[in-house]
Design brief:
- This protein is of the alpha+beta class.
- It has one domain.
- It is 40% helix and 32% strand.
- It has 3 helices and 5 strands.
- A hairpin with a 2-residue loop joins β1 and β2.
- The longest helix is centred in the first third of the chain and has 23 residues.
- The protein is globular, with a radius of gyration of 14 Å.
Length: 127
């Protein structure tokens, strides 16, 4: 299976997992609760998931450890940034775009669990 097809398969599993977590918990919890539950569900489905993965920044050839952390990094191909806010805004998108750029990843998901219907809180981002 080529890289794009594999990424799409992982993407579908992430969406299925996010919808499952949201259907079980609903909106209104802290981001950390959704992150932990989504981490558990993705792992349970057999995916490789890293939680709070450190993200160094390379500036002028120097690697700087600044404490940037990806909420979830799935199968070394998809970055998930989890939110539980009233609505997503441009700073949330900018954050994910920056993570995609400095990591070299091509696909990211911004998931805001604070929606009555989760599909309204999902934004797919391709770099």
């Amino acid at each position: 299976m080529h890289e794009g097809a594999q990424r799409e398969k992982v993407f579908k599993q992430i969406l299925d997992s996010a919808f499952f977590v949201h259907s079980e918990l609903g909106p209104g919890l802290l981001e950390s609760a959704y992150e932990q539950c989504l981490y558990y569900e993705l792992s349970r489905r057999g995916l490789k998931v890293e939680k709070q993965k450190g993200m160094p920044l390379v500036f002028c050839g120097i690697k700087l450890e600044l404490g940037y952390r990806l909420d979830l990094f799935v199968e070394d191909t998809v970055i998930i940034e989890i939110k539980a806010v009233e609505c997503l805004n441009e700073v949330h998108l900018a954050q994910l775009l920056t993570y995609l750029k400095i990591s070299g990843c091509k696909l990211g998901l911004l998931i805001n669990f604070n929606h009555r219907h989760l599909k309204e809180g999902i934004r797919r981002v391709i770099r």
